[in-house]
Every structure is written in structure tokens, then in C-alpha cells.
Write a structure and sequence with these properties.
It is a single chain. Among the domains are: 17-217; 318-352 and 359-399 and 472-525, Leucine-rich Repeat Variant. 68% of the residues lie in helices and 0% in strands. The chain has helices spanning 10-18, 21-31, 33-41, 45-56, 65-81, 86-92, 95-117, 124-144, 148-152, 160-169, 172-178, 183-203, 211-216, 219-229, 233-247, 252-262, 264-270, 276-290, 294-301, 311-328, 337-351, 355-363, 365-377, 381-394, 398-404, 453-467, 474-485, 488-498, 502-520. α2 packs across α3 (33-41), α14 runs antiparallel to α15 and α28 packs antiparallel against α29 (502-520). The protein is elongated. It is found in: Cytoplasm; Nucleus. It comes from Cyberlindnera fabianii (Yeast).
């Protein structure tokens, strides 16, 4: 058995970690904000960067394990210091730092491949150390990837993406087989794969210069393989997160192409996964998939076609599936808020498609009464807003849409990423998959936030609709009559007078105006 460059024994390594000041400091930094504040006041960022760059100038496979451990601890400290503040990221960013991260990923990828090809050819302690070092470097890279400036400069032309793709492409079963007698190595490798997916979810969005390299490098096939084969909940959750960002803001034909390896069957199956977080993320993916896509809306509506004979039965089966999920997840439990919001926005997207589907929704009385219940009793303004958009779309008139070039409301893309940018044209939200716990980590998740040009476009569309005049179609007449009979006019009117949220209040007024106008026989439509 080859044991390259083993400098300390197993017992010595454990002792050195236990009493290593840098290891202790990294744990304190990750768990206590005041420690980070203290380190920043001491101006230690530059010193830590010098330590990393100095170590990285030596071939990593020639370093003692304790040196590699020190480097990993410094990476963790820097990842904690750069997790929030852009100024701290800027302070450590350099080609040398990115090169050091790249060398670390290359070291571990090479050693892991060698171990998998020939189990036992690499000492377990060495592989554990290089794994710890790679995971620490990835945690730092995860923090840095939140910066648009980083994506457009230091990460734009590196081999980092290659190593990230290689890490997630290794089949999970290969790891299970190789580490059957070493559960620590197995868990560490699965954790590294989870952290890597968290990085990719940040750098694969449409504005990232790294997106093309990721897609061309086989990312979709790797994510599809993980979605179908992994038994690790965190890897499954982060894979869904990545796929949601792959299809975010994409054209319909591209979405359909990316859906090929994944399959709609698998996404719907995951909506019933034992993990609540996986269910929630699966509905988020379907929410992005169905946005502005008649193709995918009708695929969803026809999903249960094996058991039903008529189009009405097939389509109502999908609406009843969504209704069942809403009924199973109480609106009074805050953990269900994101899932309920995504489900209602799928209904919004269906209602934005065509007159026949708007009629289909209104004919589902149980669904409409549940939406009214959400308006009355749910405390989440984001869920209420989604419900109001359903009503606005149901009272939409197609002939005005065709004449004005507008269409029913289909806004509802979801992108919860850590990417930050100071420009006005970018949405700045912070939510990432948690890699240290059994559940996802939704930090400051923002729902349908409109920023910059998106808000102006949305308001302009409403004004354009307000200026259109035409006769009321029989379809919308019938829908308005049914909605009024169910009590929606009274509920929406009462809410419009009582809510404080300006965005919600604005949409409530539009919905009330639609219903009132139809009841008066007016020709004005929003």
C-alpha cells in the first residue's frame, strides 16, 4: 500500500487537531458573531491570506498533514468572515487566493479518484485531511460566490468549475462501496458533495458568466443522476436547488430540454418525498417550470392521464393534487409558508394560460374556497398576494389581452440565491441550502420581490390594462358571478381596507375593481 508523504501518525493527528489554536478559532468563528467582529477589529484578514498564499506556494502533496489542517482552519475562518459583508470578500479576493482554492480542489479530486480506482492506495488519514481541506475551501468559495463581482472577475477564467463538476459527477454508490468500512470518510465525502452543490446553485444563474461552462460541462446530466439515485436528503435538496436555478428565467424550449434527463415524473414523485424540505423545493421547481409556459402548464394538468378518461377529469386531478397538498400543510404553521406560496403560484401560472383553464379553476369549488380561506385566515402576506393574483387572472379578459399585447399575470419565478450585487438591476436575496444540518437553510427568503426594471415593467403592465376598454366576455362574466357568489368580493374588499402591505393593497384594489366592474357591466379591465 502506498502512503505518500505521511508525516504524522493517526493518533498524533487527532491530538494536533484537538489542541490546534487555528482549529479552535475556526470553530469559534463559525459559531459566534462576536468572534468575527473581534477578528475584524484586529485586522487579521490580510494575515490569514498571507498564511494561505505562503502554504499554497509549496506543492500540497509535500506538506505535513498538520500544515494542511492549518490551511483548512484558515479557510473556515475566512469563510465565516466573508459570509455576509461584501467589503470582507473584496479584502481577501485575489488571483492567488482563487489559485490556492483551485490547488486544494485539484489535490483532493486527484487523491479521491486514485482511492476509488484502487481502494487503500491512499492512506485514510491523508484522504480525510484532504477532504477536510477541500470542504473548508469550498465553504470559502461558497461565501465568495455570493458576490457578482467575484463571478465576473476572479472566477471567470479558472479551472475551479472543472473540479466542482468532477466532485458531483462521482456516483454516490461508488463512494458507498469504497468506504464501506470507513463511515467517517463516506460522510465527509457526501458533505463535500453537498457543499459543492451549494456553490453551483449560486454560480449557475442566468447572469453568471460561469453558467455556460457548467451547462456545457454536463451539469444537467449530473444533477439528473443525483435526483434519481441519491439517498442523501441534503444532496437531494441541493440538487433540486441547482435545477431550480438552471431553469430560472430560461426560455421554454431550453427548460424542456433540461427536463429531459430529469423527467416530470421524478419531480412530481419528489412532491411526496418523506422530507418536508424536499417536497417544498420540488414545488418550487414546478413553480419555475410552469412560469410563462403553456407547454409545461398543460403537461402538469395532463400528468394523471393514466387513471382518468376525460380531459376534465385529468385536469381536475392535478388541481385536486395541489389542493390536497395545501390541505395537508396547515397555513398556521410557519414552516409551510414557502410550500403553500409555491403551490398557489402554480395555480397563478395555470390561470394565466387560457380562458378554458381559467374556467377549469373556477369550476373547482373546493380549490377556490380554500384560496378564500387563505385570504381570510393566513397571516403570510406573500401567500395572500399569490391568492390575489389568482383572482386577478380569473377576471382577465382575453380580447383585451390580445389587443394590448399584454397577458394575464405570470410573474412568479423563484430564485433564492446568495448572490449579491450593488447595482439596482439585480435582486439581492440570501438563501442557501444548509450543508451542516438535516434541513434546508432559508435565510431571509424573499418571495415575489420585484426589483428595478421588473417593478417598473409590472406597474406599466397594470396601467396598460387599465387603459384598455372592451366588452366583457361571457367566460369572465360567468367566472365573476361564481367568485362573487363564493364571497370573494366581500373578502377582497375588506382586506384592501385593512392590510398595511402596500404591494398587497395595490393588487387587492385591482382585484376588487375587476369584480366590481364586471358586476356593474362596465367594460374596464385590468
Amino acid at each position: 500500500m502506498i502512503q505518500p508523504n505521511i508525516v504524522v501518525y493517526r493518533s498524533q493527528l487527532n491530538i494536533s487537531r484537538k489542541f490546534n489554536p487555528l482549529d479552535i478559532l475556526s470553530k469559534l468563528s463559525l459559531n459566534f458573531d462576536f468572534v468575527n467582529d473581534f477578528l475584524l477589529n484586529c485586522s487579521v484578514i490580510s494575515k490569514f491570506c498571507e498564511m494561505v498564499n505562503k502554504i499554497a506556494k509549496t506543492p500540497l502533496d509535500n506538506l505535513a498533514l498538520t500544515k494542511l489542517d492549518n490551511m483548512g482552519s484558515v479557510f473556515l475562518i475566512l469563510s465565516s468572515l466573508t459570509a455576509v459583508k461584501e467589503s470582507n470578500r473584496t479584502a481577501i479576493l485575489s488571483d492567488d487566493m482563487i489559485h490556492a482554492i483551485e490547488k486544494v480542489l485539484e489535490l483532493h479530486t486527484t487523491q479521491l479518484k486514485q482511492y476509488l480506482e484502487s481502494p487503500g492506495s491512499i492512506d485514510d488519514d491523508l484522504l480525510l485531511t484532504s477532504n477536510h481541506l477541500a470542504a473548508s475551501a469550498c465553504n470559502l468559495l461558497r461565501s465568495l460566490s455570493r458576490s457578482v463581482a467575484t463571478l465576473r472577475t476572479h472566477l471567470k477564467e479558472t479551472q475551479t468549475i472543472t473540479f466542482l463538476l468532477e466532485t458531483i459527477a462521482i456516483p454516490e454508490q461508488d463512494l458507498v462501496n469504497a468506504f464501506v468500512n470507513n463511515s467517517a470518510l463516506l460522510q465527509n465525502e457526501l458533505l463535500l458533495k453537498t457543499v459543492t452543490l451549494a456553490i453551483i446553485s449560486n454560480v449557475v444563474l442566468d447572469f453568471s458568466p460561469l453558467r455556460k461552462a457548467l451547462i456545457n460541462g454536463g451539469l444537467v446530466d449530473s444533477i439528473a443522476a443525483l435526483l434519481h439515485n441519491t439517498e442523501n436528503v441534503n444532496i437531494l435538496l441541493n440538487s433540486l436547488w441547482v435545477f431550480r436555478h438552471i431553469i430560472y428565467n430560461e426560455k421554454v424550449d431550453a427548460r424542456e430540454r433540461y427536463m429531459g434527463p430529469v423527467g416530470l415524473d421524478r419531480l412530481v414523485e419528489l412532491c411526496d418525498h418523506p422530507s418536508h424540505d424536499v417536497q417544498e423545493m420540488s414545488f418550487n421547481v414546478l413553480r419555475n417550470l410552469s412560469t410563462s409556459s403553456d407547454l409545461h402548464v398543460r403537461q402538469l394538468l395532463n400528468f394523471f392521464n393514466k387513471e382518468k378518461s376525460t380531459d376534465e377529469d385529468k385536469r381536475q386531478s392535478w388541481l385536486n393534487f395541489l389542493l390536497g397538498k395545501m390541505e395537508d400543510n396547515s397555513m398556521h404553521d410557519s414552516k409551510n409558508e414557502d410550500m403553500l406560496e409555491s403551490i398557489v403560484y402554480i395555480v397563478v401560472h395555470i390561470s394565466a394560460t387560457s380562458e378554458d383553464l381559467r374556467d377549469l379553476i373556477v369550476r373547482n369549488r373546493r380549490l377556490m374556497l380554500h384560496i378564500k380561506d387563505l385570504l381570510l385566515n393566513c397571516q403570510s402576506n406573500s401567500i395572500r398576494l399569490a391568492c390575489v393574483w389568482v383572482i386577478i387572472n380569473l377576471t382577465w379578459v382575453d380580447n383585451i389581452q390580445q389587443r394590448s399585447g399584454e397577458r394575464a399575470h405570470v410573474f412568479g419565478l423563484r430564485s433564492d440565491v446568495e448572490v449579491e450585487d450593488n447595482s439596482d438591476a439585480n435582486v439581492d436575496v440570501d438563501a442557501d441550502a444548509d450543508v451542516d444540518a438535516d434541513t434546508g437553510d432559508d435565510n431571509d427568503v424573499v418571495g415575489e420581490r420585484i426589483s428595478g426594471s421588473n417593478r417598473l415593467r409590472d406597474l406599466r403592465a397594470l396601467r396598460n390594462r387599465a387603459s384598455g376598454r372592451n366588452t366583457i366576455g361571457h367566460g369572465v362574466d360567468d367566472r365573476v358571478s361564481k367568485l362573487t357568489g363564493m364571497g370573494f368580493l366581500d373578502v377582497l374588499g375588506s382586506l384592501s381596507r385593512s392590510v398595511d402591505n402596500l404591494d398587497l393593497k395595490e393588487r387587492l384594489k385591482v382585484a376588487v375593481s375587476n369584480l366590481n366592474s364586471a358586476n356593474r357591466g362596465s367594460a374596464i379591465r385590468f
